[in-house]
Design goal:
The chain has 248 residues and is of the alpha/beta class. 40% of the residues lie in helices and 21% in strands. It is built from seven helices and twelve strands. It has helices at 15-21, 39-43, 58-67, 85-96, 168-188, 195-212, 219-244; strands spanning 2-8, 27-32, 49-52, 73-76, 81-82, 103-112, 115-116, 126-132, 137-138, 147-148, 154-155, 160-163. Helix 5 runs parallel beside helix 7 (219-244) and helix 6 (195-212) runs antiparallel to helix 7. The longest helix has 26 residues, at 219-244.
């Protein structure tokens, strides 16, 4: 038996197809952060449980969702991830057999601006998407949260499509949210920004992603990804600087 979980905020363009792709699960639970679009309205047209809950950070919201699950085996995909039929069948087969692992990574094929990105740091992109709730939880990170477990993590054979790009403004807004949450974490740790943070960290992010991780092989899309990710690092420390000076 499988519980399929998701956290949402203004996902009306994805929610219907997402719910349909989870037809293999025995229950679907949506934890929504008070969406202002039709996300909840659309979700309630289907046989899913919808819970409205204020958003604190990604780990907190996802761990809450796990606590609401009826069944031990959990699938937890993002709304911008497409679950192919082969992956769905593999998940069912894995859960039904006597599984040697309690968590499984899934490889993600990253798509950006209509193009499959093969490099730019995404060539090794994978994330735990199937796990047993008694052995796993999210690690507490406000952003870039990941499953924490003492168990060995297996790997499923089938990959999923990661269609994170809606528009450039939307993608930039998403990175801005990540920067803000990371800045809040650094503020709690009393990290004070200096010239190294403002100059070296963004420069290193661009060089690492574009050259060391072969972003230049992805053409102009690789350059754009590397640039906006580097700028999001710069923005993280601007936001941290503003917190110390109590500037909105």
């Amino acid at each position: 038996m499988i519980s399929a979980l998701a956290i949402t905020y203004n996902e009306e363009t994805h929610i219907e197809s997402y719910i349909k792709s989870l037809a293999f699960a025995d229950e679907i639970i949506i934890v929504d952060s008070f969406s202002t679009d039709r996300t909840v309205e659309i979700a309630k047209q289907y046989d899913v449980k919808v819970i409205s809950r204020a958003f604190k950070n990604f780990s907190d919201q996802k761990n809450f969702a796990i606590s609401q699950a009826t069944y031990d085996w959990i699938v937890f995909f993002d709304l911008d991830e497409k679950i192919p039929e082969g992956l769905a069948q593999e998940i069912l087969t894995t859960v039904q057999m006597e599984s040697p692992f309690h968590a499984y990574n899934v490889k993600r094929d990253f798509h950006f601006m209509g193009k499959r990105i093969k490099y730019s740091g995404f060539q090794t992109d994978k994330s735990v998407r199937l796990f047993h709730k008694n052995y796993c939880k999210y690690n507490g990170n406000a952003v870039h949260e990941r499953i924490e477990t003492t168990e060995t993590i297996g790997m499923l054979k089938h990959a999923l499509e990661h269609q994170t790009y809606k528009s450039f403004d939307n993608y930039n807004t998403k990175l801005s949210l990540y920067s803000k949450l990371q800045a809040e974490e650094l503020f709690k740790k009393d990290v004070r920004p200096n010239l190294i943070h403002f100059l070296f960290r963004p420069w290193y992010r661009f060089m690492h992603q574009y050259f060391l991780r072969l972003g230049f092989l992805d053409g102009k899309e690789g350059f754009i990804i590397s640039y906006v990710h580097a700028f999001s690092v710069f923005k993280r420390y601007i936001q941290l600087w503003a917190m110390y000076r109590k500037i909105d």
